[in-house]
Amino acid sequence: MKKILLLFLLSFKCFAALSIEELTWENGDTLLEFLQRNSIPMSLYYSLDREDRELASEIAAKIKYQVLKDDNNNIEQILIPISDELQIHIYKNKDNQYNLTFTPVDYDKEERILTLTLENSAYQDVYKESQSSTLARAMIRSFKGSVNFRNMQKGDQITLYYEQKRRMGRLWGDITIKMASIEINKNSKEIFYFNDNYYDKNGKDIESFLLAKPIGAARISSYFTTARFHPILKRYRAHLGVDYAAPTGTPVKSAGDGTIIFVGAQSGYGNVVKIQHSSGYSTVYAHLSRFAKIKKGQKVKQGQLIAYVGSTGMSTGPHLHFGVYVNNKAINPLSVVKIAKSELKGKNKEDFIKLISQYKQIVQNHIQDNRPNPPKEEEFENYIEF
Ligand SMILES: [Zn+2]
């Protein structure tokens, strides 16, 4: 991937006549319409397979994408991010024909530590200190409702050890909180990120909030990934949700209280229901066989029947595709869905204990050395704010 981006930038440098434009993806625009509008053959879309078409429908509204043009205003290359890790790359090959591939996003990772003493509220203070609403939201999400931030008072402590991505010189994508410590009335609560989930210092799952599993007993047939190299297909794939295998007709329930914002068919995902929840969360239920008696604008309760499992759209067998979004950006559903409480055991537990002692040491050194907080930066708005 380094090579591709380098090519992208090099060709820009070598030929002064080339120019890069940064544009914003319009709400509701589709890849197919985009290709048509830019006189790029629509066959690029039609030759995509099932999963890639599904992915192509995941381009988030308001995301920034780059277009490289020659001096005659002809499009040479386009980069459209699909997730933090993966992007669509459209380019002209040697024969001057357009090609489309999915390639990893090239970015750097920075480890950062932010500490503060509470003045107003946890969210406000973290935002004020970092200028990053992404960080403030990631903090709230990481505790999964296991602390009541409203109980925090002036003088309480917050420490966040996190990973920030940077792309083309700017902040990029979501933030992963690796360790967070919050002190409320001299009681401290720590959480640690391990294997896609948050645990307390004893390796016990953090109690989850907001969302419940949308389906009864069902096996997970595909997990969430923002980019994974497929060893047989020899190319990159992403899956921005969790698939639950279940027979056609199995009831699908709303994962949380919310408002129905979409009921209908969508390319790739077939019959789809979308629900808006509080705090910028929304959920998507796809490949449904049919809908329950619901309509757009209707309020629903957690656990309320909304539809039935099916195999509509680009699907090889009956399953529920369940997606969770924060401000239109896909996150791992299993990181916010309530699951039976579990505890790390055996080798996992050993690895976990090693990891958290490292994290604690890093944070302790930082605090002892009195190192400053990361610089405030202009946030890279790569998705819509509600
Ligand atoms: Zn899926």
Write the layout of secondary structure elements.
Elements: H1 2-14, E1 19-24, H2 31-37, H3 43-46, H4 50-56, E2 64-69, E3 75-81, E4 86-92, E5 98-104, E6 108-117, H5 122-130, H6 133-143, E7 157-167, E8 170-184, E9 187-194, E10 197-199, E11 211-212, E12 219-222, E13 225-230, E14 235-239, E15 242-245, E16 251-253, E17 258-266, E18 270-276, E19 281-288, E20 290-291, E21 299-300, E22 305-308, E23 319-326, E24 329-331, E25 337-338, H7 346-368
Parallel strand pairs: 11-25
Antiparallel strand pairs: 1-2, 2-3, 3-4, 4-5, 6-7, 7-8, 8-9, 9-10, 12-15, 13-14, 15-23, 16-22, 17-18, 17-21, 18-19, 19-23, 20-22, 23-24
Helix pairs in contact: 5-6
Domain Csd3 N-terminal: 23-105
Cofactor: Zn(2+)
Keywords: Hydrolase, Metal-binding, Metalloprotease, Protease, Signal, Zinc
Low-confidence stretches: 10-16, 381-386
Instruction: Quickly give the CATH architecture of the largest domain.
Output: Roll
Largest sheet: 8 strands, antiparallel
Whole-number count of domains:
3
Secondary structure: number of strands: 25
- Structural classification: alpha+beta
Heteromolecules bound: zinc ion
CATH topology group of the largest domain = Nuclear Transport Factor 2, Chain: A
Strand content is 35-45%
Mean residue pLDDT: 87
Keywords: Hydrolase, Metal-binding, Metalloprotease, Protease, Signal, Zinc
Protein name: Peptidoglycan DD-metalloendopeptidase family protein
Domain M23ase beta-sheet core: 238-333
Organism: Campylobacter cuniculorum
